[in-house]
Amino acid sequence: MPPTENKGATMVKSRLSKQAVHVLVVALLVTLLWEPGPAVADETCQSPFLPKVTGQEDYIYVWTLGIKGVGDGNDSIVTVDANPKSAGYGKIVHRAPVSGQHEAHHAGFTDDRRFLWAGGLDDSQIFVFDVASDPARPKLVKTISTFVKDTGGLVGPHTFYALPGRMLISALSNAQDGSGRTGLAEYSNDGKFIRTIWMPKEAPYGYDVRVNANLNRMLTSSFAGKKNYMRPFGELVKDAEAMKQFGDSVIVWDFHARKPLQILRVPGAPLELRWALLPNHNYAFTATALTGQLVLIYQQEDGTWATKNIAEIGANIPVDISIAPDDSKIYVNSFGDGTLRVYDVSKPFEGKLVESVKLGEMANMVSSSWDGKRLYATNSLLSKWDKPGDYWLKAYAWEDGKLVAKFTTDFNAVGRAHIMNFGSKAFGPRAARGAAANPRVSAYAAPR
Q: What's the pTM value of the predicted model, to 2 decimals?
C-alpha cells in the first residue's frame, strides 16, 4: 500500500521577496562582521539568524523547573560545565534563580547571542538573562510580566526564536478560556512588544515555530491549551473530552509576510519542528504525541507542501527531536518509556531505526551539537506530568559508530532539568563589545 500524503489546498511560490533577501543579507553580515573568536558549538535546531559555528561547547544552560521542597524552590538557569578539558566537566558551576515557580519550559538566544530569554508556561512571565558578560554565570537583567496584556491575550510563551533584531515567541493558549486557540508574538531584542499574529481559525493551536530563510517559509506546529497542560497527566488522560482538545496541524507560512499559506493535517499532536540543514533539502521533520509518528514535511514540485509518516515510534509519547548537521539522522526522545531513538533519514521518505538508548524512566529534551559529535538529554516535561524519580542532564558522544555515555549531571538538588542551550567563553565580553561597537550588526532591525 502506498504511503498516505496529506496535501494542503493553497498553491504557493517559493521565490524570495526583496524584503526576505534583505533579511538574508543582514544575517550574512552578522555572521561575517561579528567575530566571536575561535569556533564554538551550537545546537542544530537553532535559528538561522544566529551565528552558525562549530566545535566544543563550554557550557550547557538548562532552564530548570523549581519544585517545592527542593532548595529554594525557584525556577532557575543552571550552568553545567560541558568542556571535557575542564576540571568541572559534567558538574553544575552556577545557578541563576528567578523568584517563584512559573512552569519553566523553553528558552532561546537573541540573534546577537548576548541574551537568553526564558519563559514560564503557567503565569506567562519572561526572564531575560545576560549570558555575554560572564558566560559561566548568566545574570537576570530583565523580567517581562506584561506578555498577556501586550499580546492581547496570548498565554504560555513556548518557543523563543531569534529573528534579526527581534524575538519571535510561539504561545500555547489564551487568557479568555484556556483553550488551544493562540498565536505568535514579536518583541524587539530590548523587550518592546511589536505585534501579535493569531493562528488562523481553521488551525488555532500552536506549539513550535521554525524558519527556513532560504525558502522564505515558516512552520508552526500544535499542542493543547493551558486547561490541558497545567492539569495532572493521570487525570487528563481519563477525560475523553479533554483528550480531544489537542491540535493536529502544521501550518506553512510566508515567513516575511507572516501569512499562512497551507494547513497540513497530521495524526496526533505535532510537536517540535526541525528543518533540514543542507542546501536544496526542502523538507522538515516533526514527531507526533498521542500517535507516535515520525513525520516528514516536504515541498512538492509545484511548490506546495505535503506530509508523510516515515516511522512508527510507538505509543511512548515522543516529545522532542533533534537533527544531525548532515541531515542523516533524527534523534527522538520519548517521555513514556525514557528512550532515545536514532533514525536514519538519509533517505528522507524512509525513517529507519538504527539505535536506541534507555535514558531512564522518562526522557524529554534532546540536543545535537553542530559538529554532530555530541548529544545531550534531559528528562522533565511538565511539573504535573512528570513521574516520580531522579532528574538529570545526560551527555553522550559518538564513538566508533555508537553513542557512548559521557556524564550524568544530578539535578535533584536544584530542580527538574528541561530545555538546554549551549554557551561558550568565546561569546563573552570581547564578542559583546565587538557587536555593540559595530552598528551594522547591533542596530539593525527586521523589516516590518
A: 0.88
